[in-house]
Amino acid sequence: MSPVIEVSGIVTRFGSHTVHDGVSLHIDKNEIYGILGESGSGKSVLMREMIMLQKPDAGKVTVLGRDLARITFEEAQKLRSEWGVLFQFGALYSSLTIAENIEVQLKEYTKLSKRMRDKLVRSKIALVGLDAHVGALYPAELSGGMIKRAALARALAMEPSLLFLDEPTSGLDPVGARNFDKLIVELRDMLGITVVMITHDLDSIFNIVDRMAILADKRVVAEGNIQEVLRSTHPFVEAFFKNDYTREKFADKLKEGEKDVQ
User: Fold this and answer.
1) Contact, 40 vs 202, CB < 8 A?
2) Of 43, 168, 206, 254, which sits with the fewest C-beta atoms within 10 Å of its C-beta?
């Protein structure tokens, strides 16, 4: 099967500063794919290039079989309806209720009646584990965890096949973060979507990410599942993963892998 997303030889510059210099990776259907990297490695920039908020200086990005550099405006609009995005801090409109926030895309991209839009909004609120009354509240009235779930409901409004998450568990307490991880896996399995997430959360990386790319030195220095990534001797990989906590987690994953082979 062709990758859902394929990034080939991406070069990104800001003036004289080069962020990416030959970044390549691929993301397969229905996987939860992590983008990790050192500070300033261009993780968020790369995601912005995948969702057409920014253009690379060179290279190719293909999403759902479409070369992003060669599509028409109409094709781009249609493609945007195929993905949902959860930004790091939710990015909800503060002047709109949660229901109105979720409804925005439905009003923009569909010709559904108000009654049908309201029904879909209620279903998305329930899908992410929020009570129905939350729809009438404003973002300022919600906790951090509820804001994340409300923003996720908005990202799912158009029933996308792709879901982009930027640091989805940042700002959450440990219990809230693990519950959010569980929700992401449940949604992937239930809806059959592909999830791309920027994260530094080690528990997320070890427990829900299927494969990942590690950005450092302006390129991808490791890509694959956790066992494959941990074979890398790159200094960033060594510093990020190879400490007492991650060694213990890695040992558990190795045992699981041996059982799978048997």
Assistant:
1) no
2) 254
